[in-house]
Design a protein that fits this description.
By secondary structure, the chain is an alpha/beta fold. Helices cover 33% and strands 18% of the residues. The protein binds 2'-O-acetyl adenosine-5-diphosphoribose (OAD). 2'-O-acetyl adenosine-5-diphosphoribose (OAD) binds next to loops.
């Protein structure tokens, strides 16, 4: 395993692998949005350090106290709206523009990848753009402040819930299938800003493809660090733009990564 510090001394292996790659898969977690001011889950200041996951992110917790759950998700939704995509999100959108076979799967529900210009985003854990009825599965868009607390009950007898995946629930089948296939065919896998402890999402990093060059971008070590080809110990907003810049420097051998309006 090679290691780089993310301050300009990038592992040449990642750049070389990306230059050769026909297919690239990126898996992101909450760390990519940290530099947009959104807290992660498990690190210092992480949401699960001060909040009980079983109260806020489980079907049982929602059944017990839907007002508590919506109050929390409404605060998170408002924080997402205030946040802006950072250089890491933008760099990933540039990679998508430059590569024919590129897939981004995110565990995040904050929509910042879409706002940065990524078009095909597999949202493994759903998103906070919508609420869904727990009974009839109807959907409704969420405004910037989330769901008014006096509108939790749906006319069909069910309750509106955030359109996200909670612990104990299954990922959306089609989204999971597409993510798994993309991970399996990738020549390069970039794992960005995730502690890689929540399954099945974490399995996409290393479990479905024995031949890919896997690089982890994270200031901290994770359980997969010793199983990847390269760990870039820096923040997403520092390291990803460096990768994109390095790729675009050699115009003869790299994809066109120049910033340009969409054609
Ligand atoms: P975690 O909080 O578990 O991990 C965040 C990771 O981001 C850690 O490994 C940090 O070291 C890293 N990190 C922090 N700042 C970073 C930065 N600037 N650049 C790059 N990396 C940085 O969050 P997730 O892995 O996203 O699921 O958590 C996975 C799932 O657990 C979430 O989707 C959510 C949560 O419970 C559900 O709610 C179902």
């Amino acid at each position: 395993m090679a290691e780089a510090d993310g301050t300009g001394n990038l592992t040449a292996g990642v750049i070389a692998a990306l230059r050769e790659a026909r297919s690239v898969f990126v898996l992101t977690g909450s760390g990519i949005s940290a530099e947009s001011g959104l807290p992660t889950f498990r690190g210092v200041g992480g949401l699960w350090r001060t909040h009980r996951v079983e109260e806020l992110a489980s079907p049982d917790g929602f059944a017990r106290d839907p007002v508590l759950v919506w109050t929390w998700y409404n605060e998170r939704k408002a924080a997402h709206e205030r946040a802006q995509p950072n250089a890491g999100h933008f760099a990933i959108a540039q990679l998508e523009d430059a590569l024919d076979d590129f897939t981004l799967a995110t565990q995040n529900v904050d929509s910042l990848h879409l706002r940065a210009g990524s078009r095909k985003v597999l949202e493994l854990h759903g998103s906070l753009r919508e609420a869904r009825c727990s009974n009839c599965n109807a959907g409704r868009p969420l405004g910037a402040a989330g769901l008014p607390l006096d509108e939790i009950d749906h006319a069909c007898g069910g309750r509106w819930r955030p359109d996200i995946v909670w612990f104990g629930e299954s990922l959306p089948q089609d989204v999971w299938q597409r993510a798994r296939e993309a991970a399996a065919r990738a020549d390069v896998i970039l794992v960005v800003g995730t502690s890689a402890v929540v399954y099945p999402a974490a399995a996409l990093a290393t479990n479905y493809n024995r031949g890919a060059f896997v690089a982890e971008i994270n200031p901290e070590a994770t359980p997969i660090s010793d199983r990847v080809a390269c760990t870039l110990r820096g923040s997403a907003a520092e390291v990803l733009p460096q990768i994109v810049e390095a790729l675009s420097r050699d115009e003869t051998a790299s994809p066109d990564l120049s910033v340009r309006p969409r054609g």
